[in-house]
């Protein structure tokens, strides 16, 4: 199946920011979107809004750090729709701080959500896509997956990992399954809310002045999906024009 209309698309971290904007856009373009995140009140409101505009949307509570949760989320998608065409591994957290602050629990959280969460999505979705002999993974990395800046060592490490995992996946299963990395620059969302370190929080406030809206990232995701089946867009970097 080419294009976006009629595709079954699972989105992790759909309760705000880029995931939410992507859900709205893809549903408007005729996809069946299935949304996962921990804040189900947000998902319920979003699903109602999409349905009110005639779109197809469902949601299920999801914590991507738990493998069982991700397995049952993907099982739910397949039970509802009979297949999964696209998995958007979007859930992410970014509690920035300098390494010397030793916020080890926050390092663990970034590793758990940003790396393990993506791997859990692949583990749950790959057998389904291999059985279908078609599908597409869209994994959210970042400009931070290409360059490291102070306070962002661990976050960047997780986003470098997303690029490495995606490239390995593409090399191994590229015959049937498409693999796309989306690497946004600074984008308006709730991502910086998780920063507990005052220095990093202040630095981010300055950085975010040039942020682009999450709809800009949603459009790049739609572009990767709507290409013909024999065209695999491997990475899109989208940053504000004013971001260095
Ligand atoms: P938001 O904070 O707005 O959205 C993050 C989403 O991830 C939320 O829906 C949140 O939902 C979800 N999430 C967090 N932890 C978990 C978990 N354990 N299980 C399931 N869902 C989880 O930020 P963005 O929209 O900006 O982030 C989306 C992606 O884009 C991330 O991977 C981020 O790293 C990446 N990115 C963002 C950039 C930006 O400037 N905004 C730049 C580069 C990359 P809930 O809390 O309800 O579970």
TrEMBL record:
Superkingdom of this protein's organism: Bacteria
Location of the Ketoreductase domain: 7-189
Keyword Oxidoreductase appears in the UniProt entry: yes
Coiled coil: none
PROSITE patterns: ADH_SHORT
GO molecular function, one term: oxidoreductase activity, acting on the CH-OH group of donors, NAD or NADP as acceptor
SMART domains named among the record's database cross-references: PKS_KR (SM00822)
Entry annotated with the keyword Cell inner membrane: no
Family membership: Belongs to the short-chain dehydrogenases/reductases (SDR) family.
Protein name, UniProt field: Oxidoreductase, short-chain dehydrogenase/reductase family
Annotated organism of origin: Myxococcus xanthus (strain DK1622)
């Amino acid at each position: 199946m080419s294009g976006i209309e009629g595709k079954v698309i699972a989105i992790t971290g759909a309760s705000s920011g880029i995931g939410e904007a992507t859900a709205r856009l893809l549903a408007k373009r005729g996809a069946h979107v299935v949304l996962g995140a921990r804040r189900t009140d947000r998902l319920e409101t979003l699903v109602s809004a999409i349905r009110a505009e005639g779109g197809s949307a469902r949601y299920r509570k999801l914590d991507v750090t738990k493998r069982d949760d991700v397995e049952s989320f993907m099982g739910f998608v397949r039970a509802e729709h009979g297949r999964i065409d696209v998995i958007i591994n979007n859930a992410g957290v970014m509690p920035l701080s300098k390494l010397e602050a030793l916020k080890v629990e926050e390092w663990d959280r970034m590793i758990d959500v940003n790396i393990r969460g993506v791997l859990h999505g692949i583990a749950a979705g790959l057998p389904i896509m291999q059985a279908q002999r078609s599908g597409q993974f869209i994994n959210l990395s970042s400009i931070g997956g290409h360059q490291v800046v102070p306070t962002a060592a661990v976050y960047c490490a997780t986003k470098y990992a997303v690029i490495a995992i995606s490239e390995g996946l593409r090399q191994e299963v590229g015959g049937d399954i498409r693999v796309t990395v989306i690497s946004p620059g600074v984008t308006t969302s709730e991502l910086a809310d998780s920063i507990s370190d005052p220095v990093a929080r202040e630095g981010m406030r300055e950085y975010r002045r040039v942020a682009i809206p999450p709809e800009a990232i949603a459009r790049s995701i739609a572009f990767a999906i709507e290409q013909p089946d024999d065209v695999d867009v491997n990475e899109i970097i989208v940053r504000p024009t004013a971001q260095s």
